[in-house]
Design a protein that fits this description.
Alpha-Beta Plaits, four-stranded antiparallel β-sheet, elongated, about 450 residues, six-stranded antiparallel β-sheet, 14 helices, Trigger factor, domain 2, single chain
């Protein structure tokens, strides 16, 4: 087999392939066996008709077509396995010549990973926030713990921030009641922001028996993208009373004997969380530097595919109804043109990050172990609320294991860059990024889709 690769652009190649007939004997044998199983020829059992009889009855062209269809895909796959090209997506294949008894020629055009000139990773530098735990942050953590042991007491006064209220909710769109949004005796914490926008401010100052109404754009359901008038009636106002922050509470809520020991443990926990945040901040900053300073040609077809995927995901919330999506955009003060531009920008950034990190992984000769892949699957399964086995089966059936593998490998690529870069905190102290990476989830460094 002879093959040449013609560079059509930084992201697309044309592969020219010529296969001599003396390499095709096994392919002809397979073709004859396959055709013989599919036809009935008098005097011969199924699958036993000789080649010359098959050609006499069906014609040489049928055999050649069967041989060529198999050879083209097999030879293209052989070229890819040999590492001559690194394709992105499916090729456009054209058979250009069939000279019976001499050779078969075909071409394959396909998007490929572009060649990327890498920066010197050891010359990169980022600064992250200091690890500084304040007394106020410890107090906030302690108050959160105290709230778990708090009691709610009904009060006869207007609603304040932090109160709990019992609400009856109803909603209407253009005067028509929305049954799915109607509920009674809903317990809600004022200031939590867990209901629709504006409801917290509307309820502050109201008393038991009062009604308040707000207008909100519905994000899901039958009326997604439509503006609804939501009415909340207060059935009760309750104040949360917290237990005293003393040694007795420390013994009740933890394994510690004193409140001082409990506060010290909370401070240490906050320090560990902030250390992990340093790692996340460093990864985000180093990725931004890489994307801002590295030229990465983008295959148009891959970007378009990413745009379509994102648009489909956005439309999914509106039951794939573009008109409802348009109404929602209008309610948010956006145009369809702005939405499309935002989709394209996000898609280009994602594709650029993936191509760059894949190239870094190749340069660093990185691979993913079975344990790393399993760890990522378990992490994702936990987030989805399903068992790891079920999630792995879903991935396998959907052909998604390759995507998870690639995400983990890209995360390792970014970690490899970080390990060579200079990372300091705001005070100028070096940060041991390798220690933080040891407890990071594989693949989490890849830019979010």
């Amino acid at each position: 087999m002879k093959s040449t690769v013609e560079q059509l652009s930084p992201t697309r190649v044309k592969i020219n392939v010529e296969v001599p007939f003396d390499e095709l004997k096994p392919d002809f044998d397979r073709a004859y066996r396959k055709i013989a199983q599919q036809v009935n020829i008098p005097g011969f059992r199924p699958g036993k008709a000789p080649a010359r009889i098959l050609e006499q009855r069906l014609g040489r062209g049928v055999v050649l077509e069967e041989v060529v269809s198999g050879v083209v895909s097999a030879k293209y796959a052989e070229i890819v396995r040999a590492g001559e090209v690194h394709p992105l997506g499916r090729p456009e294949i054209e058979v250009t010549k069939i000279e019976d008894g001499d050779h078969v020629a075909f071409t394959a055009e396909v998007d490929v990973r572009p060649k990327i000139e890498m920066p010197a990773f050891n010359e990169l530098a980022v600064s992250v926030d200091d690890i500084a735990v304040t007394d106020a942050e410890v107090d906030e953590q302690l108050d959160g713990l105290r709230s778990r042991f708090g009691t709610l007491t009904t009060v006869e006064r207007p609603v304040r921030q932090g109160d709990f209220v019992s609400l009856d909710l109803s909603a209407a769109v253009d005067g028509a009641e929305v049954a799915d949004l109607a509920t009674t005796d809903l317990s809600y914490e004022i200031g939590s922001g867990q209901l629709m926008e504006g409801i917290d401010d509307a309820l502050v100052g109201a008393s038991q028996g009062d009604e308040r109404a707000v207008n909100a754009v519905l994000a899901a359901g039958e009326y997604a993208g439509r503006q609804a008038e939501v009415t909340a009636k207060i059935q009760a106002v309750k104040e949360r009373e917290l237990p005293a922050a003393d040694d007795e509470f420390a013994q009740l809520a933890s394994e510690f004997d004193t409140i001082a020991e409990l506060r010290a443990d909370l401070r240490a926990r906050l320090g560990r969380v902030k250390a992990m945040q340093q790692g996340t901040q460093a990864r985000d900053k180093i990725l931004k530097i890489l994307l801002d300073t590295t030229e990465v040609p983008l295959p148009a077809a891959i970007v378009d595919s990413e745009i379509e995927s994102r648009k489909h995901e956005a439309l999914h919330s509106f039951d794939l109804d573009e008109a409802r999506l348009g109404q929602w955009l209008e309610q948010q003060g956006h145009t369809a043109e702005q939405f499309d531009a935002d989709l394209r920008n996000a898609a280009q950034e994602t594709v650029k990050a993936q191509l760059l990190l894949d190239a870094i992984a190749d340069n660093e000769d990185l691979s993913v172990t079975d344990s790393e892949l399993s760890e990522r699957i378990m992490y994702q399964a936990q987030r989805q609320g399903v068992s790891p086995n079920d999630y792995a089966l879903q991935l396998q059936e959907a052909g998604g294991l390759g995507t998870v593998y690639a995400d983990v490998r890209r995360g390792k690529a970014l970690a490899a860059v970080l390990s060579q870069a200079a990372v300091t905190d705001a005070s100028g102290n070096p940060v041991d990024i390798d220690a933080l990476s040891d407890s990071a989830t594989p693949g989490q460094a890849v830019a979010a889709r």
